[in-house]
Amino acid sequence: MDVGHCYLDGNADVVEFCPHNSFHNVLAASTYTLQEGDQPSRSGSISLFNVDMGQVSLFYRLKTAGIFDMKWNPVGDNVTSPLLAQADADGCLRVHHLQDSTDSGTDVGNALKEVHNIKVSSSMCLCLDWNPSATSISLGLSNGSVSVISLEETKTSILQEWKAHDFEVWATTFDPDQPHIVYTGSDDCKFKGWDLRNSPSETTFQNSKAHQMGVCCIAKSPHNPYTLYTGSYDEHLRIWDVRSISRPVNETSINLGGGVWRIKNHSAVPGLILAACMHNGFAIVKVNENEVKVVETYDKHESLAYGADWYRGTLCEEEKREKTIVATCSFYDKLLRVWVPESVKI
Cα(69)–Cα(23) distance, rounded to whole angstroms? Predict the structure, then answer.
């Protein structure tokens, strides 16, 4: 069932539902548009939407540099407010505080307030991830480097930076169960783990054989501390056991018919994954022990499937245990869609 849709002001590449209480209805969508010519420019935007079962309504838009990735800070004991971080084409990390419009003196015209802005590199920032305590962010760069940025109230600084890969780094992910470990994936087809307790960071493992093309995304299971997933341009979603990271568990993988650009774990249903499959729309995949199968596909986009995320709240009291919501976006047609999967019951 389609909840609603909207056309953005540029090429759509990321959608992220806010995970924080009181803000579950807020959906952020970002764009990246290359203006070619003698002096090419890369522009972008962040759009904020209010999502409920009746509508998808835009309430704020911020013009930015072209954005490749963005993420809300994780919910935790020491996290007091929602922050949205962007990795952009200007080589910058920017972090915005989501204002509560119910606060006095705040209106939706000032929904995002920039609280951190650091120039990380002359190269482009392609991907990011927050550590579990929301005190630092890892960034993957177009020159193959990875940076870890410390976020303090009064200052922002580069903790570590090292050459991690031969080509663009499209995926960087903290291990929430071992926050000193960062996983990275790149156009060089390599999947690596790094121990941040060493400076510069040292590899804990390197796999250069499993992926036949570039590694696009990495996601740790929130339900199993040993399970991790990777997606690749080679169209496969792979399952790994971090206790034996040299190869996928029993070589378990599934071909999704398009480059697996983004994967999102469902927060409440173990083994349920939403995947953006570039040239083959979107898929919902169920992983159960060593069985992996596609339980639903969504093909109402007509361009590259890039952005995807699960809604983390409840729809309404009478339906909260029955359904969930998904947001997806596609690149060249600038389209954002919000829909209810038929196969998911919670």
Answer: 20
Q: For 109, phi and psi rounded to 5 degrees?
A: -70, -15
Give the pLDDT confidence of 179-198 residue by residue, as tens digits: 999 999 999 999 999 999 98
Contacts for 290 with CB less than 8 Å, ≥ 6 apart: 249, 250, 252
The encoded tokens of residue 173 equal 């992910």
Give the DSSP per-residue string, 96-151: EEE--TTSTT--GGG-EEEEEEEE--SSPEEEEEE-TTSSEEEEEETTSEEEEEEE
In angstroms, how far is CA 156 from the centroid of its own chain? 22
Domains of the chain: 2-339 (2.130.10.10)
Do the Cβ atoms of 138 and 174 come closer than 8 Å? Answer: yes
pLDDT in the model for residue 108? 60
Beta carbons within 10 angstroms of residue 333's beta carbon: 14
Q: Which residue has the higher pLDDT, 80 or 14?
A: 14
pLDDT, one tens digit per residue, over 26-71 is 999 999 999 888 888 999 999 999 998 778 999 999 999 999 999 9
